[in-house]
Amino acid sequence: MSPLRDNDRRELLIVDTGPIRELILHHAVFHFRFQKLRSHLQWLKTQASYDRCSGFIAAFRQKMTSASVVAELDRWIRETEKLGQAKLWNRVYDEFRNMQMQEEAVSLVEMKVDMVARFGPVDASLIGLAKRHQNLQPIVLTVDKKLCDECRGLGFDVRLLEEV
Q1: Cys-Cys link to 124, which of 51, 98, 111, 139 (CB 3.0-4.6 A)?
Q2: In the prediction, which pLDDT does 68 show?
Q3: Which region among 6-10, 64-68, 91-95 has the lowest average model confidence (pLDDT)?
Q4: Taking the CB of residue 152, how many other CB atoms lie within 10 A of it?
Q5: What region does 14 belong to: left with phi over 0, alpha with psi -120 to 50, or beta?
Q6: How many Å apart are CA 57 and CA 55, to the nearest integer?
Q7: How far is Cα 71 from Cα 43, in angstroms, rounded to an integer?
Q8: Domain total for the chain?
Q9: pLDDT, tens digit, for every residue of 77-127?
Q10: What is the CATH number of the domain that holds 113?
């Protein structure tokens, strides 16, 4: 499947934690030589797959994530090797700058309680961003099949990282 389809709008991409973490992991393994993290790589195991993902993301004028995603990245980084955390955070900053990533907060009270109970606040916040910016016909990029199904059910376009 082609990651971008002819009828895709390339205005807004909403990025979940998984794709960002995978970009960071790729860099950590292949550039920082954090070999302990190699087994955590799932989709961006080669330079070609990293380049495809980067190209897909770059095709969008605006890239956005929620503040909840940053908190989830923090939890993941805190679980890694202590000596490498500063390097990982520097890479997160570099990725956000390179993507010109915008961050928006979606407050808990804006989220439907049943959605938070089913998906958690991170995924609920991404759905909230998609609703908030539906006029831009956003595409959500994720690794989470459950989130993917929910987005499709709500009428939002979505891509799994494995499709990219």
Answers
A1: 111
A2: 95
A3: 6-10
A4: 12
A5: beta
A6: 5
A7: 22
A8: 1
A9: 999 878 899 999 999 999 999 999 999 999 999 999 999 999 999 999 999
A10: 3.40.50.1010
Give the whole-angstrom CA distance, residue 45 versus residue 39: 10
Answer left, alpha or beta for residue 89, where phi above 0 means left and psi between -120 and 50 means alpha.
alpha
Question: Do the domain assignments include residue 107?
Answer: yes
Which range marks the domain in which residue 153 is found?
Answer: 12-163
Closest of 68, 142, 59 to residue 99, by C-alpha: 59
Cα 12 to Cα 124: distance, rounded to the nearest angstrom? 18
CA dihedral of 64, 99, 143, 152, whole degrees rounded to 10? 40
Q: 128 to each of 37, 108, 109, 133, how far by Cα in Å?
A: 32, 10, 11, 9
Is 6 inside any structural domain? no
DSSP labels, 85-127:
HHHHHHHHHHHHHHHTEEEE---GGGS-HHHHHHH-HHHHHHH
One-letter amino acid at 17 equals T
Asked whether residue 153 is assigned to any structural domain, the reply reads: yes
Residue 80 belongs to some domain of the structure = yes
In SS3 terms, 37-69 reads as HHHHCCCCCCHHHHHHHHHHHHCCCEEEEEHHH
User: CA–CA separation, 16 vs 22, rounded Å?
Assistant: 11
